[in-house]
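Sanity check. The docking grid for zinc ion depends on where the pocket ends up, so I'm generating a full predicted complex first rather than guessing from homology. Inputs follow.
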Amino acid sequence: MPAADVTLPDLALSASVLDRRGDLRADPGLLPRLLADPATMVLRLVGDRVAVEGPHDGPLRAVLTAPEPADAGRLALYLGEVGGIAHVGVVADDLADAVEGDPAWRTLRQVGADLDDLGASAFATTLALANWHRTHGYCPRCGAETAPVLAGWIRRCPADGSEHYPRTDMAVIMAVVDADDRILLARGKGFRGNGMSVLAGFVEPGETLAAAVTREVAEEVGVEVTDVTYLGDQPWPFPSSLMLGFTATALGTELRLQAEEIEAARWFSRDELVAALADGSVVVSGRISISRRIIEHWFGGSLDSPEIPLR
Ligand SMILES: [Zn+2]
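Predicted complex below; grid placement will be based on this.
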């Protein structure tokens, strides 16, 4: 599918290469049939890792294999098809001991920026769905144990028939830029080392995206913003977010930090940020994240900064 016309295209984890074929999910025979067909491509998730292959410095691929007999007893998730070939995500946590310490098994945070589009999309979708299944095993209405149906895309309660859909938690993430074209970076509680990032926060019920941006900036640093402009969005299955990127213009520069959430914040000119990255007093997050892409969009080019996760 062609990318939407957005300011930040080609974000990691965002390619739509799988035709999800939602029309096939209602067939209860779909997964058993696909898991008995050697032409099916299976992505196995163990904990939060999948096996990857490829050159050290080139694009990586996720390891996709034919189904194995044990897959029939595992949680299976129909991902869709590519070129007419069915792809299924399988949660194989029973293999945890077997893959422990094997360097081929990597987390999405580690390899997401280097995976090809199919691998990144299949990994992100499988991880997001698996995270939801793992924590939503019981009916919120009556407490009965629910079961996956619709090829892994919903859970149904056998006691009252209610259906429960996987959740996606919307979070806004925004560059705040002042009248002198400086960007605001902050260090949240729990960031590692000298990590700094643009501000972010979850959208609340009954709130628009622009209102969430305005509220989060006001709460976290006490700055009023205007001209909230959408940049692009990125699935972020840690465990179940969709990051919606924005830029906004600050109406003032005085900072009043929310002590429980923000450890430090300051305005950076481009020269100041280059100097801070060079001397290590500031580290920004890796290429996988929309956070870095938003900062680079403001900066006007790619930043030279070590690849370490902020948290
Ligand atoms: Zn129930």
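Relevant for the grid: The first strand starts at residue 41 and ends at 45.
Also worth noting: Residues 117-135 form the longest helix (19 residues).
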